[in-house]
């Protein structure tokens, strides 16, 4: 069993897509483990996207992701990381097939509705960042 971190971005929340998106994940037989509407701080956003810190679009990405509430979620199931990425689609909505969330509901690269962890390593890091009580870090003694 695998867990992944999924986040509906401010554009998805503002456009009223929370219910539709959750429905798609449930239809795929993934199980919702945690969900919380949150306003990210700039610090949290920078930590979440730290691998992209050198990219030219980084500052715009941080401004966008902190521009309104996001729906932070943990989903669970066999191959949950790959299954979620498949539901979400390609990074650029124009290259994301109809039937995917980005293909159906987004048009532009910088406002593409939703985030999903891209590997086991990022899923563990992102779940720990957003929901530290879900798997409390083991204390080293
Ligand atoms: N992004 C952007 N411009 C780019 C590439 C990415 O604004 O040229 C944004 C986009 O919102 C994307 C996010 O940065 O979802 C994270 O980029 P990543 O490559 O991790 O894509 P994802 O994993 O979200 O598909
Ligand atoms: Mg990514």
Description:
Helix content is 39%, strand content 18%. The chain has 141 residues and is an alpha+beta fold. The chain has a domain at 2-38 and 70-130: 2-Layer Sandwich (Alpha-Beta Plaits). It has a four-stranded antiparallel beta sheet with strand order 2-3-1-4. The mean pLDDT is 97. Uridine-5'-diphosphate binds at residues 52, 57, 61, 91, 109-110, 112, 115, 118.
Broad shape: globular
Which molecules are bound besides the chains? uridine-5'-diphosphate, magnesium ion
Number of helices: 7
Measured by DSSP, the beta-strand proportion falls in 15-25%
What's the main sheet like? 4 strands, antiparallel
CATH topology of the domain at 2-38 and 70-130: Alpha-Beta Plaits
CATH architecture of the domain at 2-38 and 70-130: 2-Layer Sandwich
Summarize this structure as a short list of keywords or feature phrases.
single chain, 141 residues, alpha+beta, Alpha-Beta Plaits, four-stranded antiparallel sheet, 7 helices, binds uridine-5'-diphosphate, binds magnesium ion
Per-chain topology:
Layout: E1 2-8, H1 10-14, H2 18-27, E2 31-38, H3 42-48, H4 58-65, E3 70-77, H5 80-88, H6 101-105, E4 114-116, H7 120-130
Antiparallel strand pairs: 1-3, 1-4, 2-3
Uridine-5'-diphosphate is lined by residues 52, 57, 61, 91, 109-110, 112, 115, 118.
């Amino acid at each position: 069993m695998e867990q992944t971190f999924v986040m509906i971005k401010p554009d998805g929340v503002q456009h009223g897509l929370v219910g539709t998106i959750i429905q798609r994940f449930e239809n795929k037989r993934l199980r919702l483990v945690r969900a919380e509407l949150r306003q990210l701080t700039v610090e949290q956003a920078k930590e979440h996207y730290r691998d992209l810190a050198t990219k030219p679009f980084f500052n715009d990405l941080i401004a966008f992701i902190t521009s309104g509430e996001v729906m932070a979620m943990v989903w669970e199931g066999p191959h949950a990381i790959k299954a979620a990425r498949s539901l979400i689609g390609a990074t650029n909505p124009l290259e994301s097939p109809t039937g995917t969330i980005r293909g159906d509901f987004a048009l532009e690269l910088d406002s593409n509705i939703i985030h999903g962890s891209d590997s086991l390593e990022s899923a563990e890091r992102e779940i720990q960042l957003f929901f530290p009580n879900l798997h409390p870090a083991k204390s080293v003694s």
